[in-house]
Amino acid sequence: MNQSLCPYTTKLLSETTNVNDEHILPIGLGAPQSFYVPATEEENLRLNTLIDAPAINDPLLRFIAMAAGVVSRSGVVKTKLKGTLSEGGETVAAVFSTANVDLKFVKPIDIDSTSGQILGIRGFGDQAATQAEQIKKDHAKKGKLIEIGDIESRPSPWIKFDFEGDMHVIRAEIIKTAYLMSVRVFGDDAIRGRSGDIFRAAMVACNADKIRETGILGGLSNDLPPPFNNVVERNEHLIASVNIGPQILTVVQLFGTFSAFFLTPSTDFSCEPGTGEIVKINAATATMEKKTLVDLANQLAAEGRFHGIF
């Protein structure tokens, strides 16, 4: 469908001096570069600061993106967490990537508060020995000799990590993704109608009660309506928007973990019921497949039974 309006300002893009690509799902969550709709640059930046950046940096969502092998603009996604050793209770910092885990003590050096003497250095693997040698070299450059106490290496420790996720941040990202998907599929009808009003209000609402007040139906759910209840893999996203008659059904499933569906009015839509698009994204490779409902119906007819959307 044709899109001539900004999905945020609802004004003509042709009357806007700065227009850029607004990604339906952030690249930092594994979306392809080509998965976007045009939008006013100023509003694009505002919504990135308000919704996308907090979602990309949410500790739980970022960890899942890391585990899925997502590669962002700055490279392979890594996530930083703090934990405590099961024995001793010392605080450690961990940087996780799909390739390895880099562990460090938050306070690796024990210093006597009175004399300033280094009583010991702790580390994992050869970290402590390497740091001790570096300290000696730094002091030697200043003409000083320094004695270092115990140099302790901790092999294969048990560490407790606490994962935190802000579900309001994740929900806002899901609603924004759902809205932009409806814009991709239905163009200006999804922007200027009641459906657009509801989505724009819901994605910036400050809490669950305010979201409900917008009139949007649906929400986070472990049970998506058929045929979208096929669970995708942990490195995949499923995003769809279809006209089901009196309503537009939009579905978002991120990393096969966070699922939601939304129902908004279709009274202002000019397309026929059955119009829609279903997209599956491989977050690890930033590639996507897409199908229409007609494609899906033909697949089901050919197979004689339902094997899944893809």
Describe this structure in words.
The protein has helices at 41-56, 59-67, 127-141, 167-186, 188-192, 194-203, 208-213, 293-303, and strands spanning 19-23, 36-40, 71-72, 75-76, 79-85, 91-96, 101-105, 109-111, 118-123, 148-153, 159-161, 217-220, 236-243, 247-254, 258-265, 276-282, 287-291. The radius of gyration is 25 Å and the shape is elongated. Strands 12-15-14-13-16-17 form a 6-stranded antiparallel beta sheet. The chain has a 4-stranded antiparallel beta sheet with strand order 7-6-5-11. By secondary structure, the protein is of the alpha+beta class. A hairpin with a 4-residue loop joins strand 6 and strand 7 (101-105).
Report the sheet-strand fraction: 25-35%
Helical content class: 25-40%
Estimated radius of gyration:
25 Å
The helix-and-strand class reads alpha+beta
The strand order across the widest sheet is: 12-15-14-13-16-17
Task: Quickly count the helices.
Answer: 8
**End-to-end C-alpha gap:** 23 Å
- Average pLDDT, all residues: 90
Write down the overall geometry. Answer: elongated
Count of individual beta strands? 17
